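Progress note, project year one: complex with hexanoyl-coenzyme A.
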Amino acid sequence: MKPTIVQQLEEKRRLARLGGGQDKIDAQHAKGKLTARERIEVLLDPDSFEEYGMFVEHRSHDFGMEKKKIPGDGVVTGHGTINGRLVFVYSQDFTVLGGSLSETNARKICQITDMALKTGAPVIGINDSGGARIQEGVDSLGGYGEIFQRNVIASGVVPQLSLIMGPCAGGAVYSPALTDFTFMVKNTSYMFVTGPEVVKTVTHEDVTQEDLGGAKIHTQKTGVADLAFDSDIDALIQARRLINFLPSSNRSQIPVRDTQDPSDRLELSLNTLIPENPNKPYDMKELIERVIDEGDFFEIQPNFAKNIIVGFGRMEGSTVGIVANQPMNLAGCLDIDASRKAARFIRFCDAFGIPLITFVDVPGFLPGVSQEHGGIIKHGAKLLYAYAEATVPKITVITRKAYGGAYIVMNSKHLRGDLNYAWANAEIAVMGAKGAVEILHRGLTKDEIEKRAAEYSEKFTTPFVAASRGFIDDVIRPQNTRWRLCRALRILANKEEDRPWKKHDNLPL
Ligand code: HXC
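Model obtained:
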C-alpha cells in the first residue's frame, strides 16, 4: 500500500534527522562531539526549536553528487528560545559531507541571518565543517561571500555568536571573525587560514592542528576566540549564559533580571583591598565580583591580555559592561593586546546600549621596543577612540593609579566620562613620584630623590588636584562603590548624547 502523505512526511523527517547516517553519528560521538541536532537541543529551551529548510537539497550534478543528496544538505537551521527569548541558530552537520558548505546550505544560513535582522534577535552559529564543498567550486565560495556580507550588515544590529566545535579552516574562519563572540572547544576545534600541510609546504614549519589554531592558541595568544571549553556541552551552556546578559538587538531594552542583592549594600571589605605598598598588586576581579549583583561576572577573553579585564555583570538586575585594569598582570599597564581587547568590548557595549563601568588602576602604557615596533601608538589609539566615541552611560572609578596618557584613555572626564569617581587613596598624575623626580632633578642622591618624591607625591599623587579641576566628580570611600554606581546608573538611564553626522568613522585599524 502506498504510504500516506503523513507517513511520507514522517519518513522524510526521519531521514533528515539521521543526517549522514548512524555510522557517521557514531564517529562524531567517538570524537567526543555532539551532533548538530544534539547541540541545538542543549543550546535552546526544551521543545522551542522550529526548523527551516529540513528538506532542502543541493543542486549539484558534478562528481556524482546527484547520488549524494541528503535532506537538509549539511546544516540545521531555525529559531528557538533561550530563557524564553528568541534566537536564530544554524548548526553545521559534520555527518553530511563533512558539514561542507554548499550553495544551498549557505542560503539556509543567510535566511536565518536575514530573519534575525528583521525580527531583532541574536544569531548563534555552530561551526563544524570541512569548508567549501569542493564539488561545487565557486558556487560554494559565493555562499561564503553571502554569509560574510550578512555578518557585516548584522554587526551592531543583533548580537552574533560563533561556536567552533570542529574544523573551521580556510576562508570559513572569516565568518566567526566578523561576529561578536567566538567560543571554542578544547582538542576538537581549530581555526586557521591554511592548515599544517600547506604551512609545511610553504614555510617548512612542522606544526600540529592544535598548535597552529587550537582553542588554547586562539584564547591565549591571538585573541581570535574569547573562551575555550572542555566539551560541547560546557560551551553551549555558557553560550546560554552569555545570551542572558545581552539585549536581543540594538533596538531592544537591556534584559533585567530579579536580584536579591540590595543596591545600597555596603562592601566593607573593599576598604582594605588596596595594599599599603602602592607597588603591591591586588586582584581587581575580587573588586568587580564584590560590586556587581551577586558576584555574577561573565568574563570575556579571561586568558588573553590578562592585564585588562572585560566582561558583563549586572547592577540592580540590569546588564553593565565592565572594563578594569588588572594590577596582577604587568602591573595593569596598557599594551597592544589589552588595548585591542578592551576597545572591541567597549564598541560592542556601545553598539547595544550597554552602560560601561571602568575601574582604573593603571601605571601607564607598557614601555618596550616590541610594543613600539608592534604599533602601540595605533593600537592604543583604538582604546582611546572606543571610549571617546561611546555614547552609552560611562562611569569611572579610579581605585589607585591613573598615570599619564593611560589616565586620559581609561574613560577620563576628558573623553566624556559621565560620572568619574576616585577612591580617597587614588594617585592621579603624569607619572609615579620617583620617576617624576628623577627627570625633574637629575643627579640627586638616593636620599634626596626619596625626599623630593615624598613632596611630589603629597602634592600631585592624590585625587584632590584632579577633583579641584572638576576632572573627578567625587572622591568616595571604597565601601560605598556599589551604591554610588547603582545610583549613577539610575540617573544616567535616559542619557542622550549625539555625535555629528558622518557616514561612518575612521577607527585607527
Ligand atoms: C566536500 C568534504 C569536505 C569538503 C570533508 N568532506 N571536507 N566534502 N567538501 N570541503 C567529506 C569527506 O570527503 C568525507 O566524506 C567526510 O566529509 C568526512 O571527512 P573526513 O576527511 O573523513 O573526516 P576527518 O578525517 O575528520 O577530516 C576532516 C577534515 C578533512 C580535516 C575537515 O575532511 C579535510 O581536510 N577536508 C578538506 C578541507 C578543505 O581543504 N576544505 C576546503 C578549504 S578552503 P565521506 O563521504 O568519505 O564521509 C575553503 C575556502 C573557503 O573552505 C573560502 C571562503 C571564502
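The two ends are 67 Å apart (CA to CA).
The chain is about 40% helix and 20% strand.
No further modelling is planned for this target in the current period.
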